[in-house]
Amino acid sequence: MPDDRELLDTGASAQLLGDRFPGMAATDEQVVAMQSEKLDSDDILQKRPFGFLFWFALTWIAIVFLAAIFANLLPLQNPNYQNYSALSQGPSSAHLLGTDDLGRDLLARLIFGARVSLIVGFFGVGIGLLVGGTAGLVSGYKGGRLDVALNAGSFIILAFPAIVAVIAIVTFWGQSLLHITIILGIATIPLMFRVIRASSLSFAQRDFVVAAKTMGATDTRIVLREILPNVIPVTVTFSLITVAGIIVIEGTLAFLGLSVNLPTPSWGNLINEGTANNALSTDPYIMLWPAMSMFLLLWSINLIGDRLRQRFDIREGLL
Amino acid sequence: MAKKTAGDAFDFKDAASQSGPLLVVDDLHTSFRTTRGTVRAVDGVSFEVHEGKTLGIVGESGSGKTVLSRSIMGLLPPRDVIRSGTVHFAGHDLTAMGDTELRRIWGAELSMIFQDPMTALNPVKRIGVQIAESLRLHLDMDKKEAQSTAIELLRSVGIPSPEQRVRWYPFQLSGGMRQRVMIAIALACAPRLVMADEPTTGLDVTVQAQILDLLADLQRERHMAVILVTHDLGVVAGRADDIIVMYAGRIVERAPTRTLFADTKMPYTKALMDSIPRLADPSGARLSAIGGRPPDLINPPTGCRFSPRCQYAQDKCRELEPPLRTVGSPDHLFACWYPLVDGVSTAPSVPVSITTNPATTANDAAPTGGTTS
Amino acid sequence: MSKYLIRRVLQLVVVSFVISVLAFLLVHLLPGDPSTIILGPNDTAANRATLLKQLGLNDPLWQQYLTWLGAVFHGNLGTSYLNHESVTHILATGAPVDLELIIISQTIAFSVAVPLALLVSRRPNRPLDNVATTSTFGMLALPPFVVAPILVAIFAVGLGWFPATGYVPFTQNPATNIHDMILPSVAITAGSIAVYFRLLRSDLISTLQQDFITMARSKGLSGRRIMWRHAFRPSSFSLLAAAGINIGALIAGTFVVELLFAIPGIGYSLVLAVNQRDYLVVQGIALVVAIAYVTIQFIIDFIFTIVDPRVVRE
After folding, report:
1. Closest Cα to residue A241, out of A301, A166, A186, A196?
2. Which residues of B touch C215 (CB under 8 A)?
3. Which terminus, N or C, of chain A has the lesser number of Cβ atoms within 10 Å?
4. Cα distance between residue B316 and residue A122, in whole Å
5. What is the ipTM of this complex?
């Protein structure tokens, strides 16, 4: 976006000054004083390294993903096999993370349980992106009555407390992985719609879009070639935050016993199992492994989202 | 605690008996530490202001005038700001004071009018409360007293039906009204010196004149000193007793107003004057703009800081920095090796006279542009 | 004043209407005979016939809706087929428990987040700020179902400071009640603290760069007065909005801790009802909680008009 250069330049200096001198308004004067030909926007906006934590978070997500995908190929025991000769054991060489009160291998259950969180989280957001994102992209660009109607509709849907709606629907519709994914996916549609619409709307009024229009580009071409690439940073960042949000809702449902039916393991119901029947005092590992894994996964997704947000220079309040 | 009562450690009214100037700024330097290096925004500035007088400080954006006014008051946050030199106000050294001591002077003896009243008034507080705040703090008024004084202040700055307006929020007022409110706040505790930082920028020309006249009237009534900071020589022309012209953090010319206009020594000052629109000019006459942009204050140019943009610049100008000196009249100081005499440069090889030829074409002013008005 | 509020009231009415329709349809669009759904599979044919007549189940759907809505307005949300307790009674006994949990948790959240944000935003990027920012970032990843079991393992099972389960009504023994409620309340607080702190901190930092703060300093006001009287209010808009949205997450949180600590709140009844397919109870709870939620949003919007005088004008 070369047309933004100067804007970014000034903004960046003001930001720099603001960061350094809180309590002092950066007036024009100081901004100009800070500027010189050498101060390029690139200096500040780019090449700030992501840092160790970012790569650590990415590694953890990769490990969880790979383990969940290749769980069947890994040398794991059947997560539902009940070994009555090894009940409630701590970590050992035979059972790296120990066993539960039915003698099931905790590592196997942990890894197979990751599948539910990942499928619901990423496929759910996929549904939201596909429907809400597309609608938002077009609605923000085209405007008009459809936009007003969709906007009002999304307001009404967002007025519902998601968890209550989801519990009610799951109760009446039945608890399966497919249902949960679809319901949570639908729940993210208005969120995705609103954020992407706002972003699309802001770009639709920019000069380069107007220029493309005057040059006779079709709407389809403008949306795909001019707007979509610019909306991607916000979309990626917001999608990650939403993935974390959905994983939390699924986990909550699972903990309440309202998600995927037992005995299919998921981290939420594994934590619940770890709290049942006095297990917290007899075998806290059952709860500890999925709780820690869940914390690390959510933390990692949030961290990557946050670092991308900083890199793309998106204001926090926007999301 | 911070009341104007006799016997207080900082009784400035009492100190008024001292004979010297009200404000003495001596060799003030102010720099910011940034990741790129040290920005020397104010670089060795000295001047005085006498009781009841008006000083104009003029310079284009980036000349360091805003930083100077805040630095004099001590309003810049201490972290990453390096300040040296002294500022004596009514005989007391402000640079030696701590925050608690400064707070007794701020708003009470020394106050500030800000550039943009839209951003300088708190958007979610009633204007009456914002005026009464200083009254209650410095003059120990109770709520009722402060409120009625606030109404009187609003009346004195020319706000109609102040009894109702006192309960309004800033967003309900026009730009000119807001600036009047700001003046009311600044003058609430009858300070002896007011710093007005671009008080009329962003207002309509007619409103500008009204505000400046109001300020001048109040100044006369209350015998305050005023420092008027602006980028527009036209604003200070008829109002200031003395004028300081700043460039790149330094004073480049200082003189009584009449002298400055009659006998401009510094080509930069001349260029600023040429950028003032005049009614006498034929319509369609082009205003001259100063080419180029203010220098980088992290690595200022060697020699005279204006030399890269000065059409008379000689080798000497680029190598040696001219000192602030006088020729003839002792109160006219300037920093130029080849000062103008009757508008004509004394430099050995002058291409053309400054009055017939605008300094540079506006095209050279890209990307940020020079001074325009 | 009026125009904005009238629009919001209209919105509230529309959303409440949509909620009631959806809640109604939950039961009535379910495949199978509504009387079986309402009465459970094992009731007598006579009871079934009475219900059929009572609810007008042979009428057109919109008439059934009106009949049902009329009953709802009279406080009749039906009865549980399991224990024949009225849904209204279940809600009336459960709601105070949820409210208590939310009030304790939000009191803790605000009294930690607000002073901390005011403290660190004056000197951002200092060690104290970095510690606060990093640890609250971690707290964003601690939903109640993760943190509650860990708290129980440490403070109830390990240290024995609090009971792992149990509930005594406030009216019976206030001291025990509060003591028992501490752990569950804290468990649903982590996310609130993190969200409130981070929003307020970032808004305060940008507010403190505003001219009107320098202006307030130039009046001679003290740092503390400037923070509370000048910086806090203009910085609290996102905080207020977030507090409203956060209620949704808090409701989910109370469900989790009620189940874990065996506290008889609405969430406890809801989970029980879902597992027993006690549809009328689920319907009633969903309806009331959803309406309560949108009403709270409305109240928060109303508070906005007080905190920010500009809202009404725009």
Report:
1. A301
2. 112, 114, 120-122, 182, 185
3. N
4. 70
5. 0.84
Domain B21-109+191-277+289-373: give its CATH superfamily. Answer: P-loop containing nucleotide triphosphate hydrolases (3.40.50.300)
pLDDT tops 60 at residue C163: yes
Q: Chain B contacts of A10, Cβ < 8 Å?
A: none
Residue from the list B32, B77, B368 with its beta carbon closest to the beta carbon of A23: B77
pLDDT band with cut points at 50, 70 and 90 for residue B242? very high
Which of C210, C216, C217 is closest, CB to CB, to B119?
C210
Nearest-CA neighbor of C190 among A299, A284, B22, A235?
A299
Domains and CATH numbers, chain A: 102-318 (1.10.3720.10)
Across the range C197-203, mean pLDDT stands at 90
Distance CA(C56)–CA(C24), nearest Å, equals 14
Confidence at residue B245, expressed as pLDDT on a 0 to 100 scale: 92
Put simply, the chain B residues between 62 and 81 with a CB less than 8 A from any chain A CB are: 62-67, 70, 75-77, 79-81
Residue C55 banded pLDDT, cuts 50, 70, 90 = low
pLDDT tier for residue A62 given thresholds of 50, 70 and 90: very high
Q: What is the 3-state secondary structure (H, E, C) of A195-215?
A: HHHHHHHHHHCCHHHHHHHHC
Its pTM stands at 0.81
CB B31 within 8 A of CB B38: yes
Question: Which 3 state secondary structure label does DSSP give C122?
Answer: coil
The alpha carbon of residue A15 is apart from the nearest alpha carbon of chain B, in Å, by 12
Inter-residue contact C55 to C64 (CB < 8 Å): yes
Residue of C nearest to A244 (CA): C141
Which is higher by pLDDT, A79 or C71?
A: C71
- CB-based burial label for A53 (10 Å; 0-12, 13-18, 19+): middle
Inter-chain CB proximity C219 and B105 less than 8 Å: no
b/e burial code for range A232-266 (CB count within 10 A of at least 16 → b): ebbbebbbbbbbbbbbbbbbbbbbbbbbbeeebbb
Backbone φ and ψ for A303, nearest 5 degrees, come out as: -65, -45
CB A239 within 8 A of CB A301: no
Q: Return the CA Rg of chain B.
A: 22
Is B132 in CB contact (< 8 Å) with chain C?
no
Q: Where in chain C is the domain with CATH 1.10.3720.10?
A: 87-275
B39 beta partners: B32
CA dihedral A224, A225, A226, A230 (to 10 degrees): 80
Pairing state between β B193-197 and B225-230:
parallel
Confidence at B293, pLDDT banded by 50, 70, 90: confident
Q: Is B123 on the interface with C (CB under 8 A)?
A: yes
Domain positions in chain B are 21-109+191-277+289-373, 121-187
Mean pLDDT on A125-154: 88
- Max distance between CA atoms of chain B, in angstroms, equals 70
Distance between CA atoms of A294 and A70, rounded to whole angstroms? 19
> What pLDDT digit, counting tens, does each position of C104-160 carry?
999 999 999 999 999 999 888 888 888 998 899 989 889 999 998 888 888 888 887
Q: Is the CB of C207 inside 8 Å of chain A's CB atoms? A: no
Residue in chain A nearest C144 by alpha carbon: A252
pLDDT confidence band for B294 (50 / 70 / 90) = confident
Question: How far apart (Å, rounded) are the C-alpha atoms in residues B360 and B291?
Answer: 5
Q: How far is residue A309's CA from residue A317's CA, in Å, rounded to a whole number?
A: 11
Domain C87-275 sits in CATH at 1.10.3720.10
The dihedrals phi and psi of B136, each to the nearest 5 degrees, come to -70, -35
Which residue of chain A is at minimal alpha-carbon distance from C23?
A168
Sheet bearing B92-93, strands edge to edge: B37-49, B23-34, B81-89, B92-93
What is the predicted pLDDT for the residue at B287? 61
